[in-house]
């Protein structure tokens, strides 16, 4: 990948030349001359990124960076050829190659860094939208219970996937926001019901007492029901600027992901598998694909549908999400045996205690980690049809899910 | 109301004369002459009902009825005037009045009789549609649990209301069938969750052990969740021949009726009211309006939306359904204290045992019955804008709900 950037002060990107400096390089400018140790000038592209991106790429490793117009280079750049930044560079080809390698590494690294900003930004708008969607009103108790779990500060991975997919195919964040909120409502419902004494009987969730511990089992059941029905209502009522038949497709896809062909199917087989020592990899995969991957897949696919993605795009994104979804659960299995409750914000070691079939149990910890790595690669491969810069959030999300620590 | 009917053998309804015989009247015909004790000939209307209706109206009280053309009367009828069937009737006006009174009584009675056929017919198609909508497939256990409660032979009041409303405003039964199935799925979900040990802790429902008694609490929670999400999916996926924006309006309305502004709101206030001796009529009405009336209202309103009803029709039907919904619960309260578990098919006397606020407790049994009667009248008044013959199913359903015995 060739990293191209605006030069500060350029009024047009076509035919101009960009300077890319390697990290650790000292770059200074005075009297219209650029001084640096290792750099290259590369032709600009129309879709080149703004200066802030270059700053970001060079990041904290470059000290005292400053950029400005380099008159001597502008003339050369108009030929469109790669130009050496003489007299500092002897071998243009070598420098370009090194800078491109650097760019690749930095772009990969930038996904993580970008992603952090991206995730914080998305979580912020999603939290605002969720807060607004479920205001505190009569009857207060049920609304409190719904809000308690819904606004408990989850990572908002599913809404972020939904919004990222929508934007990747050219849609606006706002149009996908009701759907993004809906997948978080459904996810929260599944957590509330999953934590019930008759299910996993869990006391801790997202670092807080579980819903039924605070509000009682009856209210917890009802809070889940209310969140579930509201999720569909919210999409139907609040999605604007999208053709109605597309919204119906979204509701249809989401419903399937939740019900007895999706999340519930995974949970019921998961429950049936407890204490069954004959559970094999196939069954385990069935559980994870349905219990976890289905809703992640739905998050991505409905974002793409709302964003107006074509069938190939929707299909590829669906495949990406299935890999990511399975990955999510494999990592969950790994974290359950490698982390403490405090680190996870929920009870750790539960799977071991319940003698549940998990990837670490069936494959061993190391092979589970390899499997997770393979899934990450496969997930990213699905995104090859997209502009890689635009796909950065979803590429980064795959890494994030693979490397998450809780 | 003037009862008008086809005469047997008539090829045209305009300008012909109908014979309406009073119950208990012997009517015979030979050689083109009609012989009867009390009858009237009235002008035909274009929307007059077929002969079968007359048979039905006179019903079992008329022995040996037979109808045929009465040449002597046809000439008179062409004037459009009410004609006496001489020589058997002396005072035409009196006979017409008596026959009209009889017609009114018989039409009212016919609702009940019609309704029985109507309810059986609707329950049959709804049961077939529900069976088809949730086939037995992997994972079998959750499907079995869903089907166990869904196909337990309820009266299908809500689907019948939905289909009747659709047909009343000119829609086809088939277009409203997915929505009709959806309201039954939601109703079933609410029963399964309501029966859970952490809620009403009930052992008996529709004459059978409750869902969690058969499948366990965890599966019962999940079966409810699956039915709830599937209800919305089913409407979105299966409703055909209806503009997509209308289907979205249906989903939106239905979601509101189920969640924390509808059914769940009613349940949470109901739970909070248990053992609270200060619960007043206002709170009780809030509970019933939300816990029961909201879904009945939704059933009717979404049927009307799908059927293409105009805003006044949808509004009137909504008001009708709110009265009927409240009526439904008032009658439920009354039945709880007047019937046995065997008669109800569920545990009787529960409200008394739980010292719950009910209409009989707050108003007394007699005033509760009067209140139910008033609600029935008000509900029917809302239907005055419709053709009363076409509204017969909904008029009859109000009577049915008022007079139901379980």
Structure description:
- 2 copies of one chain form a homodimer.
- With 406 residues, chain A is mainly alpha-helical.
- Chain A has 2 domains: 3-110, no CATH class; 115-403, Farnesyl Diphosphate Synthase.
- Chain A is built from 17 helices and 6 strands.
- Chain A has helices spanning 51-58, 71-77, 92-133, 140-150, 157-168, 173-195, 211-215, 217-238, 244-258, 263-273, 281-306, 311-338, 341-344, 350-353, 359-363, 365-381, 392-403; strands spanning 17-21, 27-30, 33-36, 39-43, 204-205, 208-209.
- In chain A, the strands form 3 sheets. Chain A has a two-stranded antiparallel ribbon with strand order 1-4.
- In chain A, a hairpin with a 2-residue loop joins strand 2 and strand 3 (33-36).
- In chain A, helix 9 packs antiparallel against helix 11 (281-306).
- The longest helix of chain A is centred in the first third of the chain and has 42 residues, at 92-133.
- The radius of gyration of chain A is 25 Å and the shape is globular.
- In chain A, 49% of the residues are buried.
- The model of chain A is unreliable at 1-92 (pLDDT under 50).
- The interface between A and B is large, with 53 and 53 residues.
């Amino acid at each position: 990948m060739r990293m191209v950037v605006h030069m500060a002060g350029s009024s047009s990107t076509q035919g101009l030349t960009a300077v890319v400096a390697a990290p650790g390089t000292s770059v200074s400018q005075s009297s219209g001359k650029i001084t640096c140790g290792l750099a290259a000038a590369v032709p600009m592209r129309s879709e080149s990124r703004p200066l802030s991106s270059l700053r970001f790429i060079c990041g904290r490793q470059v000290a005292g960076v400053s950029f400005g117009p380099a008159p001597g280079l502008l003339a050369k750049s108009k030929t469109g050829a790669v130009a050496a930044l003489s007299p500092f560079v002897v071998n243009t080809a070598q420098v370009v190659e090194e800078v491109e390698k650097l760019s690749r590494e930095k772009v990969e690294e930038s996904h993580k860094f970008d992603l952090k900003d991206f995730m914080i930004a998305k979580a912020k708008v999603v939290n605002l939208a969720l807060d607004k969607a479920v205001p505190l009103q009569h009857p207060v108790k049920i609304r409190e219970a719904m809000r308690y779990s819904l606004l408990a500060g989850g990572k908002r991975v599913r809404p972020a996937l939904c919004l990222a997919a929508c934007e990747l195919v050219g849609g606006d964040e706002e149009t996908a926001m009701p759907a993004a909120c809906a997948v978080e409502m459904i996810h929260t419902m599944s957590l509330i019901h999953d934590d019930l004494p008759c299910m996993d009987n869990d006391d801790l969730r997202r670092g807080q007492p579980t819903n039924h511990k605070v509000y009682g089992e009856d209210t917890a059941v009802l809070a889940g029901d209310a969140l579930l029905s509201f999720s569909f209502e919210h999409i139907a009522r609040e999605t604007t600027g999208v053709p109605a038949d597309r919204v119906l497709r979204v509701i249809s896809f989401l419903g399937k992901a939740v019900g007895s062909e999706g999340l519930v199917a995974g949970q019921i087989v998961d429950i049936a598998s407890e204490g069954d020592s004959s559970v094999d990899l196939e069954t385990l995969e069935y559980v994870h694909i349905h219990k976890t991957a289905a809703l992640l897949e739905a998050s991505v696919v409905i974002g793409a549908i709302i964003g107006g993605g074509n069938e190939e795009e929707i299909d590829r994104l669906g495949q990406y999400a299935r890999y990511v979804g399975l990955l999510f659960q494999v990592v969950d299995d790994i974290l359950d045996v490698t982390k403490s409750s405090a680190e996870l914000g929920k009870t750790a070691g539960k799977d071991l205690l319940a003698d549940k079939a998990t990837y670490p149990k069936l494959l061993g910890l190391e092979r589970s980690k390899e499997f997770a790595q393979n899934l990450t690669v496969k997930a990213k491969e699905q995104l090859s049809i997209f502009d890689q810069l635009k796909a950065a959030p979803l590429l980064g999300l795959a890494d994030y899910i693979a490397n998450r620590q809780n």
